[in-house]
């Protein structure tokens, strides 16, 4: 019975209705994120996703999508059960199964993603289309260094010497009604000194704060670690 329940909740993209909350998580798989085997930004992001999934309440639908340069791959769809069960037995089992499935899928599917660059803007545009199909409470998580070097040409070196803002004329995704959480995780940024890193990170946050203001979304959290 337990296996049957978990098989139901770990179904991939389907036409079923969304549950009470919809969480879309975008996981940056570009080369700068490293791999799963070391304490790389990717490994740290996976640890953060595990923590977020571990907080999911009943009937929350979670979609995890890996992205790189103009390509992405579905890594997980999990629906938390309607009933938590005695001492949250069913809810905890579903969370654990979701995390295990995510890691399993990532190890297989990462090879199909173009990791040469990071295209965060494109991934957000695609996530916005998913939100448009839902009338539930919506939350967007982004696990990346937030250096979109495909669409915006962002880098720590550039941001260390000048402020960069989203270019005029770009098409913004519609994120009205969406709560946004950004976890900006870097490898050791040895390309610039400590003072320059602090300047670059502050400017990067300002860039995305303005970006999400233009989308109509609510940027609830922007956290940086390296």
Explain the layout of strands and helices.
Blueprint: H1 2-9, E1 21-28, H2 41-53, E2 60-67, E3 72-79, H3 89-109, H4 120-132, E4 137-144, H5 156-161, E5 178-185, H6 194-215, E6 218-225
Parallel strand pairs: 1-2, 1-4, 4-5, 5-6
Antiparallel strand pairs: 2-3
Helix pairs in contact: 2-3
CATH architecture: 3-Layer(aba) Sandwich
Count of DSSP H/I helices: 6
Radius of gyration: 18 Å
Which word captures the global form?
globular
Task: List unreliable stretches of 5+ residues.
Answer: 1-19
Sequence of secondary-structure elements = HEHEEHHEHEHE
Structurally, how many domains make up the residues? Answer: 1
Task: State the separation between the terminal residues, measured CA to CA.
Answer: 43 Å
What is the mean predicted local confidence, pLDDT? 89
Share in β-strands = 15-25%
Helicity range: 25-40%
Total E-strand runs = 6
**CATH level-3 fold name:** Rossmann fold
Largest sheet: 6 strands, mixed
Q: At the first level of CATH, what is the class?
A: Alpha Beta
Task: Decide which structural class fits the backbone.
Answer: alpha/beta
Strand order of the largest sheet: 3-2-1-4-5-6
Short description:
This protein is of the alpha/beta class and 226 residues long. It has helices spanning 2-9, 41-53, 89-109, 120-132, 156-161, 194-215, and strands at residues 21-28, 60-67, 72-79, 137-144, 178-185, 218-225.
What would you note in describing this structure?
The protein is an alpha/beta fold and 226 residues long. It has a single domain, classed as 3-Layer(aba) Sandwich (Rossmann fold). It has six helices and six strands; from the N terminus they run H-E-H-E-E-H-H-E-H-E-H-E. It has helices spanning 2-9, 41-53, 89-109, 120-132, 156-161, 194-215, and strands at residues 21-28, 60-67, 72-79, 137-144, 178-185, 218-225. Helix 2 (41-53) runs antiparallel to helix 3. The longest helix has 22 residues, at 194-215. The chain starts with a helix and ends with a strand.
């Amino acid at each position: 019975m337990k296996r049957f329940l978990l098989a139901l909740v770990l179904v991939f993209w389907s036409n079923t209705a969304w549950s009470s909350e919809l969480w879309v998580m975008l996981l940056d798989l570009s080369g700068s994120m490293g791999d799963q085997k070391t304490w790389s930004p990717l490994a740290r992001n996976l640890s953060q996703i595990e923590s977020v999934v571990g907080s999911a309440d009943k009937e929350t639908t979670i979609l995890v999508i890996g992205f790189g340069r103009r390509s992405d791959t579905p890594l997980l769809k999990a629906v938390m059960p309607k009933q938590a069960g005695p001492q949250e037995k069913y809810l905890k089992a579903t969370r654990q199964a979701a995390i295990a499935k995510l890691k399993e899928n990532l190890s297989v599917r990462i090879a199909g993603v173009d990791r040469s660059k990071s295209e965060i803007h494109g991934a957000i545009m695609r996530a916005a289309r998913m939100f448009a199909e839902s009338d539930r409470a919506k939350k967007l998580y982004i696990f990346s260094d937030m250096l979109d070097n495909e669409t915006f040409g962002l880098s720590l070196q550039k941001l260390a010497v000048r402020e960069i803002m989203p270019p005029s004329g770009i098409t913004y995704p519609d994120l009205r009604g969406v709560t946004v959480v950004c976890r900006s995780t870097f490898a050791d940024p040895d390309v610039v000194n400590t003072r320059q890193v602090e300047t670059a990170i502050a400017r990067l946050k300002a860039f995305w704060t303005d970006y999400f203001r233009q989308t109509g979304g609510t940027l609830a959290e922007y956290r940086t670690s390296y």
